[in-house]
Request: fold
Amino acid sequence: YFSGESQWTFTLQKSRNNDIGSSSKRIKLSTDLYGTGINLPSPLGKEESELRTLKLEADIDEVTGREININYDNSLFADIFIDNATESLVRNINIGLEKKHPENSTNNTISIQGEIDNLSFTDWGNLVNTSKNIENEKKKEKILLAKIFVGNLEILNKNFKEVNIDFTNSKINKDWYIIFDGREINGEASYTKKSKGKNDYLYINFQNL
Reply:
C-alpha cells in the first residue's frame, strides 16, 4: 500500500509527566510525506507528489501501558494504547475523524468516531475483504466499533448525502452489521466475508434507498 520515500524529523525530549525523577522520554516523528504514495481509498490515499503532514508521538520507558499518538494531516487522529503484559501488545485503538476520539477504555476494540466529507463504501469494503487474514484463527481479533457521519457516501456507484453510519464486526472478524441512517438511504445490512470453503453473503433491509 506504500511506495517511495520521505524525509522525517526526529525529536527526543523529556516526557510530559511531572515526575522529575522519571526516566521516560517523549519521541516525536514528523514528515510531509512528499515522495511517498499511499494506495488506500480516500481519505488516506495520496500521490507521491502530494503533501500530507504525518506526526507520531510516543512516551517510552520501562513501564507497561504506554500510548502512541498519530495525527494524519489534521484529518485523522489515532491513539494506540500499548500493554506489554498482554500477548497482542495493543490493548485498544481509538480513531477520530476531523478531531480526536473521546476517551474510551474498552479493551480489545478499534473504535472510530467523527465526520468525513466523502467515503466510498465499495472501495473500503473491497480492501477489507482482500486484506483479510484467516491463517491464524486462534488469534484474538479486535472488535471494530464505528459511529461516523458521511457528507457523501458511495455504494456500488450510487451516491447518498448526509448519512450516519454505525457498524461493527461483533462476531470477531466473521460478520459485519451496518446501520445506515439518512434521508436518501435508511436501513441495515449484514455481511459475511469470505472464509475457507464459503462465499460472501450479504443481507440488506432498507426502508429508503
